Amino acid sequence: MYKKNETNQEHRMDRYQRAQKVTSDNILHSVGIQDHCDYIITSTDEGNNLMNQFKEVSTQVAFENSVNKNFVFSCEFVGSDVCTQATIQKNCFNLASSVQDKSCGPDSLQVDSCLSYNKFHGFDCIKDENQLKDLTGVTFKVFNLLLPFLSDSNKNLLDIKSQLLLFLIKIKLGITFSALSVFLKISRRTASKIFFKLFDVICSKTKNFIFWPDKYSITQTLPNSFKINYPNCRCIIDCTEIKVEQPSTVEQCVYLYSTYKSCYTVKTLVAVPNGMISFLSKCYGGRTSDSFITNDSGFLEKLEPGDEVLADKGFPGIKTECENNN
């Protein structure tokens, strides 16, 4: 019930008559309504008198399922009062016995979704190549080159791109598996399992990426400054050290401790002819000298007469060994 402002009586009467005509047509075709209606307005005079009585007060009722036999609606006028009643049998509209609140799409505040912009969600959060380089040290081209070597599995919590990202972050930054588990919302055991699984796969798939090119290919691709000053340069060599955890035995500690780095490391010899790695030795303990690694790794066996090898002062025994071989 609500108050209404005064309006034009003629317009109100026209609207009332149109409404009565529509209501009468609906009532004649409905089921179960006529028997409960004690008073139906059909004349203009009676309607006018009734409108005058209720000119400041109005009521409105709307329903749609009047043809259903299980639905009965009645309206009764008693003096200046009006009464309405609806009878609806239980389950006449085939309503579900229980109601559940359901939503479409994840809640960005409660679900670990990429919609949560303030959280890290693996590879989906990498927006440009600089971000990828900062985390992994590789470009999108190299990342996409390694991706086909891996097979996706529904058992893993991370998609295949995030798994490769985890692997490269570990290689580049050397952070612990516990830290990786925090970033990627997985357990430490899962992070370790993913890393070593990808490690075996990538090592077996990319071992042919490192090969010893022929001398002609190297001389054709040397930088101009090398062609002038070192025309016979076959490669540049150096040993690199990688920090490792403290070993569990005294013997391993002695073998891996590097006096140069003042920590436990593994050493490997790397040869670079023109920007690409052409030789990579096995790993040695940090206390092993550069000369011993060069002589023991089999690198000298790949050289040909007349080849020049550039190295720093940490390889004093190489020349002697080459002379002995000749």
From TrEMBL:
Task: State its cofactor.
Answer: a divalent metal cation
Q: Where is the signal peptide?
A: none
Q: Where do transmembrane segments lie in this chain?
A: 164-184
Extract one GO molecular function annotation from the record: metal ion binding
Q: Which UniProt keywords apply?
A: Membrane, Metal-binding, Transmembrane, Transmembrane helix
Short name of any one Pfam family annotated for the protein: HTH_Tnp_4
Please report the stretch or stretches of sequence annotated as the Transposase Helix-turn-helix domain. Answer: 158-206
In what residue span(s) does the DDE Tnp4 domain sit? 237-319
PANTHER family noted in UniProt: SI:DKEY-56D12.4, THAP DOMAIN PROTEIN
Tell me what this protein is called.
Answer: DDE Tnp4 domain-containing protein
Question: Which species does the entry assign this protein to?
Answer: Macrosiphum euphorbiae
